[in-house]
Amino acid sequence: MRILGIDPGLQLTGYGVIDVAPAAPRLVDAGVIRLNPRDSIADRLVELERELAGIFDEHKPRRCAVEQLYAHYKHPRTAILMGHARGVILLCAARNGVELHELPANRIKQSLTGHGHASKLQMQHAIQFLFGLKSIPQPPDVADAIAIAVCCSRMIEDARFISARAAGNLRRG
Description:
Blueprint: E1 2-7, E2 12-19, E3 26-34, H1 41-59, E4 63-67, H2 76-95, E5 99-103, H3 105-113, H4 120-131, H5 140-166
Parallel strand pairs: 1-4, 4-5
Antiparallel strand pairs: 1-2, 2-3
Helix pairs in contact: 1-2, 3-5, 4-5
């Protein structure tokens, strides 16, 4: 199963594509969509949609995972701006008939590092280690996007395990 993880932003949007395999996930592609901060928000959203459409067309994911919107009371503008980018991502997933998963940031960090408040650098190192990369993914938005895809794959596997156990297909022990 192919999963596209996306770390939304209006300047940098990270993306990571993984294939979920029985032994371990395999990194297919990862990168960042760079949007010009001098362009209007509307123009950046158009560019984001165009770039994401190309990624969906090229990789044909079955699932798309994106970080849930988080609003800090000290920075409400950040959440509003992030909501614009997330809207474009949700639109692209729906247009492509891709199942969407929205994950809380602390759950993503917990899944990869064991700590729900891990730093960007810790996340980069976790992704480097998991996939045996020679260097940490740069910029951090790329590592975050890959982590979102990995967390989604782990949640899907956990749900399958729980379903199988509830159906009596797995024994305790």
